[in-house]
Structures are given as C-alpha cells and as structure tokens.
Design goal:
By secondary structure, the protein is of the alpha/beta class. The protein contains 12 helices and 12 strands. The protein has a 7-stranded parallel beta sheet with strand order 3-2-1-4-5-6-10, with helices on both faces. Strand 1, helix 1 and strand 2 form a beta-alpha-beta unit. The longest helix is centred in the N-terminal third of the chain and has 22 residues. It starts with 7 loop residues before the first strand and ends with a helix.
Length: 320
C-alpha cells in the first residue's frame, strides 16, 4: 500500500466523467494512488491501468471499510443517475443520488477525509431561474428528480462543511461532451451522440429542437476545472454549495453546422421528445464569475476547437 498522503478514491468511475478523471488523476498522482470504483464487477480491462474495486456507495459499512483499509484521504464521489434516466425511475435515482452522497459525507466525517469532490449540475436551475447568464445565487428551481437531488445535495455539502468541517467542493457542470466514454443518460447527451452519428452514418435524429440553446463543456476543460478546484487553498473559496461553471453555449443547429464544416453531407432530423421539456427548463448560459475570481477558472475549448478535436479522436479511436 502506498504511503502517499493524498490517496484518492473515485466512485462512479465507469461513468462519462469518471473514466477520464481517473486517467488524469493517475497521470498526476501515480496509478497506485488513485483507486477506481463502481458497482460493476472487476475485469482485466478495468484493472489494466490501475486498481479497480467493486463498490456500492449505498453500502455504508463497506464504504467505510474501504476508505480505512486503503488509506483514502480524498474522494471524488461521482456515482449518480443522470437526468433522463432519473425521470424513468425517480425513486431509485433519488436513493442513489441522495443516500450515496450522505454516506460518503458521513464516512468522510468519521474518517477525517482530507477533501471530497461532488458534482452538481445546471439541473438545479429551472423556470424561475435566469434563462440567460444564470447567476451563482439565482433561484434554484429544479424540474427533474436529478435536479432535485442535486439541489438537496448542495445543501448537504454545505451542512457537512459548516457543521463538521468536511472540506467538500462542488461544481455545477453544464452538459459534458467526451470522445472517450459513452453517454450516461443525460438530457445534453445529444451533443455526444451527434458526433458518433456524423462519423458513422452521416445523419442524426435529434431529440431536441434545433434552436434549444444549452451551456456545454468539453471534457478536457471539465477535468481540468475539477482538479484545479480540488487543489486550490480552502482560504480562496467562499461557495460551499456548488460553483457555477461555464465554457461554450450552442444549439443543436449550431453544433450541426460546425460538424458540417468537416462533413459537408451531414444531415440532422429534429424530432423532439420528453427530454425537450427538461432542456427548456434549464438556462441557455451560465454566469461563472465566482469560479473565475476565486480559483482562476478559464475554459480553453471553443465550439470550433471542440468539434475538430472530437471528430479527430473518434475517427482515430472508434471508427478507424
């Protein structure tokens, strides 16, 4: 076992964010010091780049034993059910999203874990929030079980910080776009699916209206933001619920047009479904001035940069 003071556990490591975050953390801290975990049984593939363990965050006893036995000092708690899947089975989604977080926070309190990261989402906003440039302190008005759990989770994080001194840090992620992991059941996942369809078949059926603007972020920026937040001194931070975070804003039509610059024959058919109502309840852009001021956040990828990089990776790694 490593004696490194910052040994890290990542829950939900098989998800869209987890897969790339684990790789980035291992590059920085060494593969022995970053333990990946999820509810799936271990395989040779999961173990090839480092330690992976099967772990259900709803099992608090096993969670506590794991943290003690492995000498965990930091936790990135990513295990969750996302927005669209959460609407299909709201009560199980609530149980995982809420009880899983409370278990992690309580074990962190008991074991004196140095630092905890937990992702929130723009899903905490809703019709009564600002539609454009939604501010850090805007009204939280979630319209989905996912958003409700994230709103409640933000206040659990603040409670455990103020009541017990657990150093919990959080980001309200916009829609995340990645070439390295499959979509996880979120409303913004059209912005991942569309790239696969463009490369594979040259056409895509989009479940949102063409002019539905949403805040988005390319995964390399999301990973960098997460690690920057976790490395900054606690003295710099004033937000103990969750930080607004922004990068790029676009509509399905604008994204399709940018892809069309690389694949001129690409066609999109728009057939909105129930996910349109979820998207309509969210802001089209986010004001993240607190993140920029308090820990120096700046995105690197603009729309054109992201599209070029996504298509390059998919052509080389998935559809070669």
């Amino acid at each position: 076992m490593s004696d490194v003071a910052n040994r890290i556990l990542v829950t939900g490591a098989c998800g869209q964010l987890g897969a790339e975050l684990v790789a980035a953390l291992r590059e920085k801290h060494g593969w022995k010091n970053v333990i990946a975990s999820d509810i799936y049984p271990s395989t040779d593939l999961m173990q090839k780049d480092g330690i992976y363990i099967k772990l259900d965050v709803l099992n608090k006893k096993k969670l506590s034993y794991t943290m003690s036995h492995l000498g965990i000092k930091q936790v990135y708690h990513l295990a969750a059910v996302l927005s669209a899947k959460g609407e299909q089975n709201p009560l199980p989604a609530w149980e995982l999203n809420m009880q899983g977080l409370v278990n992690v926070l309580d074990v962190a309190r008991e074991k004196k874990i140095k630092r905890v990261f937990w992702p929130s989402s723009i899903a905490v906003f809703g019709p009564q929030s600002f539609r454009a440039a939604c501010t850090q302190n805007a009204v939280l008005d979630p319209m989905t079980m996912y958003g409700i759990s994230k709103m409640a989770g933000e206040y659990w994080c603040r409670y455990y910080y103020e009541r017990f001194g657990v150093d919990v840090r959080s980001i309200r992620y916009p829609g995340l776009i990645s070439h390295a992991a499959n979509p996880g059941g979120g409303t913004t996942d059209y912005a991942v699916d569309i790239f696969h369809a463009a490369v594979e078949s040259g056409q895509y059926e989009c479940y949102l209206k063409e002019n539905t603007g949403l805040p988005m972020m390319y995964m390399p920026d999301a990973i960098r933001a997460t690690m920057e937040l976790m490395e900054i001194s606690a003295d710099n931070l004033t937000i103990r619920t969750s930080y607004n975070l922004a990068a790029i804003n676009f509509t399905p039509k604008e994204l399709a047009a940018e892809i069309g610059k690389h694949i001129p024959s690409f066609k999109v058919l728009y057939t909105p479904d129930g996910r349109q109502d979820i998207a309509d309840s969210w802001p089209s852009s986010i004001d993240d001035r607190f993140a920029r001021h308090e820990w120096g956040w700046r995105p690197k990828f603009k729309l054109g940069d992201m599209v070029s990089d996504m298509l390059c990776h998919l052509r080389k790694e998935v559809y070669a």
